[in-house]
Amino acid sequence: MKRNRARILVATCLTFALFSASAEERGPLIDEVLSLSGVDQQINEIAAFALSEIETRKDVLPPKEYNRLESGFADAFGVKRLRETVTHAFLNNYDAARMKEWLMQLRSPLMTRMFALEKAAASKNAFTEIAEFAERSRSMPPAPSRLDLLKRLDQATSATELALDSQSAVTRSLLYAINPSLPENKRLTERELERLLSDVRIQTATTLENIAIATYLYTYRSVSNEELASYVAIYESELGNWAIAVSHKAVQRALSAATAAFKNTLVMNPQPPFGGMFVAVKSPQCRNTLHARVRPTFGDRFSSFIHNVTVMA
Fold it and tell me: Can you tell me the mean pLDDT for 236-263?
């Protein structure tokens, strides 16, 4: 009996040792994939978006409530927490052959060039140029074939879907904070909450799709249709589909974990509801509806941009 237990103990130790060694080997590969594929950038943008949604409400919240909300969001949607969850998801779905093949693809000259263009377009300084480019595109609309390629790219990379997922996660967290501040007979049930989130997602989808297409038109303006078609084909391939699916699921898991973490913070640290959130919608700037309280606040600087890309698309 003792020998059997000893064998089991040794086998268990060896298994953990092998797993740890394997994880150490996989870690650097995953880190490079997250960096080259833009997932790291997506994580940074999600964290920034979450905090920006809180910052837009600073003027209508009492300082104590604002600080509490900001602290909760900063922790739940922090870059470190999001990235750890994404990395863990990649480890759980690791396929050595596919991961190495995808990494080789990411290092290719075409992908490297496209990533450089995408990085430049993602900079803060590029926003004005994108908006101006969208305005010019209204008088000189792109060819249907070009638009088709860009729509295929958006679909193949799940870019708009990921943006909607991010918005939904932040909105859900805001609802967790707002709901208790409502009069008891106005509070949402779980089913009503899900319905509201679905409505917000549907109403936001077209706007985000138009923004994506306008951004792509600017980002790849120096890229020929042939090169763009080759780039799209990479993501539409079996390998590309696998890579995007793994990435999307990993980010979705991180968003779900962030929302759960924020909700847990509210449960573990019970304090008076965010009454300021309820008072805020009484102000002239907002409609007196719950939907107004949770809709994404893109900000005034986006209003003309959204109009331009909507007309253009």
Answer: 96
